[in-house]
Design a protein that fits this description.
It is globular, with a radius of gyration of 19 Å. β1, α2 (25-35) and β2 form a beta-alpha-beta unit. α3 packs across α4 (92-104). It has a two-stranded parallel sheet with strand order 1-2. The chain has 5 helices and 6 strands; from the N terminus they run αβαββαβααββ. It is α/β, with parallel strands linked by helices.
């Protein structure tokens, strides 16, 4: 359901003594404000930009494989999944090329089909948000190395996407 509809009864009811939430910092702030009146205990894992670091002395194949797992193990929809990859300049372009090849090769489709690695996003808003993120990054000078568009698998599917040279903001 819609968070605003579902959550209010929990935050306002004094019988609910604690809430646990995993998600965005924006929603976390909202829950915090709504829970203040009943002094709830809140446990939150809030979104961030979980980084992976790749240094010049790394084994390239191993580094690409490990970052692939860290980002795509749960189809990329995980609050603990890697969102930013910092690569030492000497191997930056080589890593980008190798990683982009692996991202572009991910199999997208129905998760009940054998070999599918990436399924749909949860709803149309998530697809639009993904498209907005890509467009915003490109407008600020990022390079699109893989994906970036809806996938032919259906209306809730995005191509696995890789951007390089993304500014910190």
């Amino acid at each position: 359901g819609e968070a605003a509809t579902v959550v209010r009864p929990w935050t306002e009811d004094a019988r609910v003594r604690a809430l646990s939430f995993t998600g965005s910092t924006e929603v976390g702030r909202h829950l915090y404000r709504q829970s203040a009146g009943t002094m709830k205990r809140l446990v939150m894992e809030l979104g961030g930009h979980a980084p992976a670091l790749v240094f010049a002395d790394a084994d390239m194949d191993n580094a690409v494989g490990e970052v692939m797992k860290a980002k795509w193990a749960t189809t990329g929809q995980d609050c603990l999944g890697v969102n930013r990859i910092y690569v030492e300049r000497q191997i930056y372009e080589a890593f980008c090329t190798a990683f982009a090849d692996r991202v572009a090769a991910l199999k997208v489709g129905n998760g009940l089909e054998t070999g599918v690695e990436i399924g749909p996003l949860m709803h149309e808003r998530a697809v639009r948000k993904s498209q907005e993120h890509v467009a915003g990054a490109l407008a600020k000078g990022s390079r699109l190395l893989a994906g970036g568009k809806r996938h032919e698998a259906g209306r809730l599917f995005m191509q696995p996407t890789l951007l390089a040279d993304v500014p910190d903001d």
